UniProtKB/TrEMBL annotation:
Pfam families: FAD_binding_5. Residues 1-173 form the FAD-binding PCMH-type domain. Gene3D superfamilies: 3.30.465.10. This is FAD binding domain-containing protein. One of its GO terms (molecular function) is oxidoreductase activity. InterPro entries: Diverse_Substr_Oxidored, FAD-bd_PCMH, FAD-bd_PCMH-like_sf, FAD-bd_PCMH_sub2, Mopterin_DH_FAD-bd. SUPFAM superfamilies: FAD-binding/transporter-associated domain-like. The lineage of its organism: Bacteria, Bacillati, Cyanobacteriota, Cyanophyceae, Oscillatoriophycideae. It comes from the Bacteria.
Length: 274
């Protein structure tokens, strides 16, 4: 879609060149959502492409994903064989959209859009990811994936701040993972998303939840939970009033679906590891 109200288009090669951030400005990464509907409140787009941030970097400490990394890149990069957690990231891409979108859309853009149905948010929460953000003076600070999104299309980002990098510790990438997503139809908005991570040596379990609530949540166990323990934890840690209720599904139905996905997701991991 043409954005007829845009007056200025900037393509800086250095963030320091972006000064005096104003209302009506927006960062532009892949643009798959930005150009999908009218943006009457925007006057200036600041394109991040020319900054040439590294897309994927493997280090002894873990994985760094540049915010402008195209989603498709996550599918074809060569990772260490022991990084079984990568499968959750790749599942998030494969369940998101067609290759026409994933070849353009960026990981950081999806995270910053902060839709409740984001595939990446619950995965990042389950893998214990953290985000590097540049403030208005372009000084970096860190925040956990769990704290980043505060509601539907709401994040901790202040005007002019930009997500620079996603960081996942090496130890978390060696967990076994499973990704579950369910909607009314395969291509419809998700009603619930569950990303499960299991540590085979310690039996720790982490569930990253999305789509069923307004912002991603984490439920953890120090042991392999029973179905009853999963149901109890879901009920005690996320009040029924926090589940989304709309014309697609009731809050009670989303809660029930989420419990089932948690149980099935963990069962599949344990079966594969047996």
């Amino acid at each position: 879609m043409d954005l007829h109200y845009i007056e200025t288009y900037l393509r800086p090669k250095d963030l320091q060149a972006v000064t005096n951030w104003q209302p009506g400005w927006a960062w532009l990464a892949g643009g798959t959502w930005l150009f999908s509907e009218p943006q009457l409140h925007l006057k200036t787009l600041v394109d991040l492409e020319q900054l040439n941030w590294r897309e994927i970097e493997v280090t002894p400490e873990g994985l760094a994903i540049g915010a402008t990394c195209k989603m498709e890149k996550l599918l074809h990069f060569s990772y260490p064989e022991t990084w079984t957690g990568i499968k959750a990231l790749q599942s998030a891409v494969n369940h998101l959209a067609s290759f026409k979108v994933t070849n353009v859309a960026t990981v950081g853009g999806n995270i910053c859009l902060a839709l409740p149905v984001s595939n990446f948010a619950p995965v990042m929460v389950a893998l214990g990811a953290s985000y590097e953000i540049f403030d208005r003076t372009y000084q970096p600070y860190q925040i956990s994936a769990l704290e980043f999104q505060t509601g539907a299309q709401k994040t901790v980002l202040q005007p002019g701040e930009v997500l620079r990098k996603i960081w996942i510790p090496q130890s978390n990438l060696e967990w076994l993972v499973n990704f579950k997503r369910i909607g009314v139809t395969a291509t419809a908005y998700a009603l619930s998303i569950v990303a499960t991570a299991y540590h085979p040596k310690t039996s720790q379990v982490r569930f990253g939840l999305g789509a069923c609530i307004w912002s991603p949540r984490l439920i953890e166990f120090s042991h392999i939970p029973t179905s009853g323990e999963i149901a109890e934890a879901l009920l005690s840690q996320i009040p029924p009033s926090e589940f989304i209720e709309d014309d697609k599904a009731s809050a009670a139905y989303r809660q029930h679906l989420t419990q089932i996905l948690m149980q099935r997701s963990l069962a599949e991991i344990l079966c594969q590891n047996s």
